[in-house]
Amino acid sequence: MSRSVLVTGGNRGIGLAIARAFADAGDKVAVTYRSGEPPEGFCAVKCDITDPEQVEQAYKEVEERQGPVQVLVANAGVTRDQLLLRMSEEDFGSVLETNLTGTFRVVKRAARGMLRARTGRIVLISSVVGLLGSAGQANYAASKAGLVGFARSLARELGSRNITCNVVAPGFVDTDMTRALGDEQREKIVGQVPLGRYARPEEVASSVRFLASEEAAYITGAVIPVDGGLGMGH
């Protein structure tokens, strides 16, 4: 059965791979994007998730075009890396505002329809950094770790209405962002990964699609690592 799926930050990288995975399975897929060009083949809605009015407008547009959101993948996020003593209040606050508070906004709006329908799937995209930590990424790690507590609270709160809420925590993924790193940096990162390579975006997307499937109906509050073993034990 074709479902209404929304992927935030779905115009590139992991988000685009997730959107394509759902579309390939026959779902109706909408994506939000903040900048750049919208991807072809999807219901693309420009939306800055730090703006509550834009979030509300985006949902209205998606609902008009493909019905209430039945599967939400909260993927949109930013980084502003800096060592602690050089990190400004703005560096810290802006990352939490997008990655954590922005996720709160999109999930809260989706939950309204899911509660009415008494069913739904919510998947939050965190990071191995949220569990493992990373020098120079205290803001990003705090925001991604916060998603775990947020998801598990929602799993308890919404579970009686047949709504699941899970987290996928990718490791280093082969995207435009990581390709911009120098060869030495890339080799150093790969050297820490037991499987000895970067993840493909499609491998993250497969885990997300599984968590939104009927086969995963009894999984909620879980954190699924897709990191090649980098963060194991956390």
Automatic annotation (TrEMBL):
The active site is at 140 (proton acceptor). GO terms for biological process: fatty acid elongation. The keyword Lipid metabolism applies. Catalyzes the NADPH-dependent reduction of beta-ketoacyl-ACP substrates to beta-hydroxyacyl-ACP products, the first reductive step in the elongation cycle of fatty acid biosynthesis. Belongs to the short-chain dehydrogenases/reductases (SDR) family. Homotetramer. This is 3-oxoacyl-[acyl-carrier-protein] reductase. The lineage of its organism: Bacteria, Bacillati, Actinomycetota, Actinomycetes, Kitasatosporales. The gene is fabG.
